[in-house]
Specification:
It is built from four helices and seven strands, in the order βααββββββαα. With 146 residues, it is of the alpha+beta class. It has a single domain, classed as Alpha-D-Glucose-1,6-Bisphosphate, Chain A, domain 4.
């Protein structure tokens, strides 16, 4: 199984970052593909279906929320391909320290030549890009002090 671990500081309170991360209306803005939700993304048991395309091939992955600690932890597990995705947050003054980690296997249904292109560095690059998007959008939507 492959493992990726990344960290960033988001200049926004942890409550705001949590609310932004868990709001389904924002998921398509910062993450890859299109998303469909069976319920609130901060509730255990909710499923999130991710549909993405690469070089004309469409892939669907179902993520299930398996663990939630509000404003601290969101843990998703994928199906049919094994994988876990962890979003961990800690207050850092008026900012948020965000850690994203994943353990994953490359999907078996992806043709061999695409698997060769989608090596660990490709997945890391995509994950870094998503974190940059999440950071920028969460920071841009912090309400101005009254």
């Amino acid at each position: 199984m492959n493992h990726i671990h990344m960290e960033t500081r988001i200049e926004a309170p942890v409550e705001h970052v949590w609310a932004y991360l868990c709001d389904p209306s924002h998921m398509d803005d910062w993450s890859l593909g299109k998303w469909d939700f069976s319920g609130p993304s901060d509730r255990v048991g909710t499923t999130l279906v991710q549909t993405s395309r690469m070089m004309g091939f469409e892939g669907k992955t179902t993520w299930t929320v398996v663990e939630v600690e509000p404003t601290r932890l969101l843990h998703l597990r994928s199906d049919p391909d094994p994988g876990d995705l962890f979003f961990r947050m800690e207050p850092d003054g008026n900012a948020t320290h965000l850690t994203v980690a994943t353990d994953y296997e490359m999907p078996g249904r992806i043709p061999g030549f695409l698997k060769n292109l989608m090596n660990k560095s490709f997945v890391e690059r995509q994950m870094r890009h998503q974190m940059e998007n999440l950071k920028a959008l969460a920071e841009a939507t912090v309400p101005a002090p009254a």
